[in-house]
Design brief:
The chain is an alpha+beta fold and 435 residues long. It contains 12 helices and 20 strands.
Length: 435
């Protein structure tokens, strides 16, 4: 079905920038970049899929059945996303908040052209009907500059002015309402989010992504385009991965700012490691993940490989746990996702109650934010990030948005929660407003 060719590349960083610029000619693009975070569970340094041969696009109604049918019929690589609002398919939930981005709830495509980069090796997989284009495309990619350029059309965009969907005072009031639910015993924890946005604005998507990626260098970066809708993601978090019969989840809960002074930065790491509130947040979500994985896991196979380990990124320190399970080989990859989605780190515990309360208190429809972007292989393995630290852009509507949030628990202080949101928003705001 596909023709595969391999090449040696001299400078992978330079090649990646050329490749991304070449990809902009297509209406369907998904670029995934690990930024040289070579962890235990890693297949490629970067992946590019472009030019849809087939696709599935749907709202949440029967979405997982449609995705399963598409995945099983295609038996090929498929790339795309799951929006947060697929929750409405599994439970009696709704998404009635304001939506100015208007992304479909689910979208996957079978690309004609795939590029897989691992260190200095480039693997190209083209559908056989167009494999005569491989050598021509390689020559074309090489002609692009190693620095990402802004097109004449994009250069005409003026200054972007970011607005708040809710004020700080309203945010604090809503956190207090969340705390009332917690103290009443409705939930133990919930992820509460707020949107920052710009109307009647435009930007250069690729240049903006490149800037965001350079200052963040996350392990699950993504550039996605579907016609005039874009996702520019600097996500540090994996949602779910399948390797054969093994399922891997790596939830993040716990955030601390960075310091330019080495000794102070070390103190911030130590404080995060020992912070009882942050650890309790993380442990609650680990328990939720274990419960979700148990719905498809072979009995006794769930294991917590790492608990509350602090990892350092360019902008923040993060507390990450790793939970794994084993599944029966006959288990559909779609069923594993369906029984764990949306991810616990972006919902709360108990999950359904948390999602109901979130919907009532938040002002914006989450959509692709706090959903997942990634791919399925022909064998049914998969890897998906969590869509956080991300900019979303509807070019046709001239609407730019980013959303940030945090876990609210019984020990939460509204002022500190708001400060954590601003820490998480710092990179996106800097990129968009040029601070």
């Amino acid at each position: 079905m596909r023709t595969t060719k391999t090449y040696t590349i001299d400078n992978s960083s330079e090649f990646k920038r050329k490749l991304l610029q070449w990809a902009q000619q297509f209406d369907e693009i998904l670029w995934l970049d690990s930024n040289s975070h070579f962890g235990k569970y890693s297949s490629y340094d970067a992946v590019l899929a472009v030019d849809a041969f087939t696709a599935v696009k749907t709202d949440y109604y029967s979405c997982f059945d449609k995705l399963k049918e598409y995945q099983e019929q295609t038996k090929d690589w498929i790339f795309g996303y799951l929006s947060y609002d697929l929750k409405n398919e599994m439970e009696k939930l709704v998404s009635e908040n304001q939506d100015n981005l208007e992304f479909p709830d689910l979208y996957f495509f079978q690309p004609k052209k795939i590029f897989l980069i691992k260190k200095n090796v480039l693997e190209i997989q083209y559908l056989r009907m167009i494999d005569d284009e491989i050598e021509e495309d390689i020559r074309s990619i090489d002609k692009f500059p190693s620095v990402i350029q802004v097109s004449n059309e994009d250069s005409s965009c003026g200054k972007i002015k970011i607005r708040l969907r809710i004020t700080k005072d309203v945010y604090k009031e809503k956190v207090q309402q969340m705390l009332t639910h917690i103290h009443r015993g409705d939930i133990y924890e919930a992820n509460f989010c707020q949107e920052f946005f710009a109307e009647n604005s435009c930007m250069a998507p690729l240049k903006t992504y490149d800037h965001l990626n350079q200052i963040s260098k996350p392990p699950f970066a993504a550039f996605f385009r579907m016609n005039q809708q874009y996702l520019l993601s600097a996500s540090p978090e994996r949602y779910l991965r399948r390797e054969g019969n093994k399922i891997i989840s790596q939830p993040i809960k716990g955030t601390a700012k960075r310091s330019a002074i080495i000794e102070d930065d070390k103190k911030l790491v130590a404080a995060l490691e020992q912070d009882p509130k942050e650890r309790s947040e993380n442990v609650m979500i680990v328990d939720l993940v274990r419960n979700d994985l148990s719905r498809t896991a072979i009995k006794g196979s769930i294991n917590v490989e790492e608990l509350c380990k602090v990892y350092t990124f360019e902008q923040v320190h993060q507390m990450i746990s790793t939970v794994v399970s084993e599944i029966d080989p006959k288990t559909s990859p779609i069923d594993v996702i369906k029984t764990t989605f949306p991810m616990g780190s972006m919902t709360g515990a108990p999950k359904i109650s948390a999602m109901q309360i979130i919907e009532n208190l938040e002002e914006s429809k989450r959509g692709l934010y706090s959903g997942a972007v990634g791919y399925f292989t022909p064998k049914g393995d998969f890897d998906f990030n969590v869509v956080i630290r991300s900019i979303l852009y509807n070019e046709a509507k001239r609407y730019i948005s980013y959303t940030v949030g945090g876990a609210i628990t019984a020990k939460s202080d509204p002022d500190k929660e708001y400060e954590e949101c601003l820490i998480k928003a710092k990179a996106m705001r800097e990129v968009l407003e040029g601070l």
